[in-house]
Design brief:
409 residues; alpha/beta; Aspartate Aminotransferase, domain 1; Aspartate Aminotransferase, domain 2; 16 helices; 45% helix; globular; binds 4'-deoxy-4'-aminopyridoxal-5'-phosphate; 5-aminolevulinate synthase; 4pyrrol_synth_NH2levulA_synth; 5-aminolevulinate synthase activity; heme biosynthesis; Aminotransferase_I/II_large
């Protein structure tokens, strides 16, 4: 049997649909964010990264790097086991306390990644609730969708951010049925925000539990970086808050924060928590340093918002099709997978600007885009250079600018 034929056929399907992914080999330079080296097929090039999820540059912050180096030097590299088997080390316990405090919850629980937090967190919670009905936002991230699927219980999808539709489903489910509402606070491809207060109102009225993914908001919103829920004053009304250490906190790992018994139950039953090695101590110390820094420093948050606003304003003034976004995400509409990939390639090769194309299935077909994420360290001259480069690329690819661009979107 020629097994290769199956894999080649699968890859060819992606090529045919123009959505075969190519990863650029990048080397970030500590202290020079957002500048990096691109190890291209033709040799090394200096590039500027415009699509990093290290939103605040904390992955290179001296306090964070220092904590990682200090801990690795003092205690070594790996955790040495699963949480149950010698892997519960002190920096991890400290980090869980820090996260519980960040979200005003009794406890928190760490996972290998934000992906695993959602996948194993949602499925475990729903399995522990008899006859649970999951109500899931239509644009939830794949990790939540997988968690919902693995829960094996009934699920219904409510239209994105549509509280009227959510209410219809809650009413139809009846007051006695246990219900879990799962949504994100900030949707990373469009940059829009969930009406969390309205969702909490509904959850309280109809007796549902709430699970909110704050992956793209923790560290960046709220006076202490507790996320959109903190900003909107509803943190205490949400049952389970989920976040990542890999974006604004610049490290790796995911977590949930909730009441003690919820965390204890997930800790005791979630396979994705139980059967895997704990996060390394150095990562935990670095994340703790980032969280502590962002609990008191507003500079990164304010400058981040300022840079995002300026980027949107400059690109919009240049006639580029900036999609509406309420947050730090700056999506630029392309609407064609091949042109999206070409635009990304031209930006990198001709202008030293790295922005990964966003194609199906990450976004719906026909809404392909470049997803730009400015950081506190993208200065005015970098923003101007980005606008110039985009205009040249748009012209070269025959993509619309000005009024035509808005009509195309
Ligand atoms: N939730 C959302 C909404 C995400 O966008 C992502 C990843 N980008 C995750 C969860 C997974 O987080 P992590 O990268 O920490 O696995």
């Amino acid at each position: 049997m020629d097994y290769s034929q199956f894999f080649n056929a699968a890859l060819n399907r992606l090529h045919d649909e123009r959505r075969y992914r190519v990863f650029a080999d990048l080397e970030r330079i500590a202290g020079r964010f957002p500048h990096a080296i691109w190890h291209s097929p033709k040799g090394q090039r200096n590039v500027v990264i415009w699509c990093s999820n290290d939103y605040l540059g904390m992955g290179q912050h001296p306090k964070v790097v220092g904590a990682m180096v200090e801990t690795a030097t003092r205690v070594g590299t790996g955790a040495g086991g699963t949480r149950n088997i010698a892997g519960t080390h002190h920096p991890l316990v400290q980090l869980e306390a820090e996260l519980a405090d960040l979200h005003g919850k009794e406890a928190s629980l760490l996972f290998t990644s934000g992906y695993v937090s959602n996948q194993t967190g949602i499925s475990t919670l729903a399995k522990l609730i008899p006859n649970c009905l999951i109500l899931s936002d239509a644009l939830n991230h794949n990790s939540m969708i997988e968690g919902v699927r693995q829960a094996g219980c009934e699920r219904q999808i409510f239209r994105h951010n549509d509280v009227a539709h959510l209410e219809e489903l809650l009413i139809a489910a009846g007051p006695d049925r246990p219900k879990l509402i799962a949504c994100e606070s900030l949707y990373s491809m469009d940059g829009d925000v969930a009406p969390l207060a309205d969702i909490c109102d509904l959850a309280e009225k109809y007796g549902a539990m709430t699970y909110v993914d704050e992956v793209h908001a923790v560290g960046m919103y709220g006076p202490r970086g507790g996320g959109i829920a903190e900003r909107d004053g509803v943190m205490h009304r949400i049952d389970v808050l989920e976040g990542t250490l890999a974006k604004a906190f610049g490290c790796l790992g995911g977590y949930i924060a909730a009441k003690a018994e919820i965390i204890d139950a997930v800790r005791s039953y979630a396979p994705g928590f139980i059967f895997t090695t704990a996060l390394p101590p150095a990562i935990c110390s670095a994340a703790t340093a980032a969280i502590r820094h962002l609990k008191t420093s507003n500079w990164e948050r304010e400058r981040h918002q300022d840079r995002a606003a300026r980027t949107k304003a400059i690109l919009t003034a240049a006639g580029l099709p900036v999609m509406s976004s309420d947050t730090h995400i700056v999506p630029l509409f392309v609407g064609d997978p091949e042109k999206c990939k070409r635009a990304s390639d031209l930006l990198l090769e001709d202008h030293g600007i790295y922005i990964q194309p966003i194609n199906y299935p990450t976004v719906a077909k026909g809404t392909e885009r470049l997803r730009i994420t400015p950081s506190p360290y993208h200065d005015d001259s970098l923003i101007d250079a980005l606008a110039d480069a985009l205009l040249q690329v748009w012209e070269r690819l025959g993509l619309p600018v000005g009024k035509k661009a808005l009509a195309a979107e």
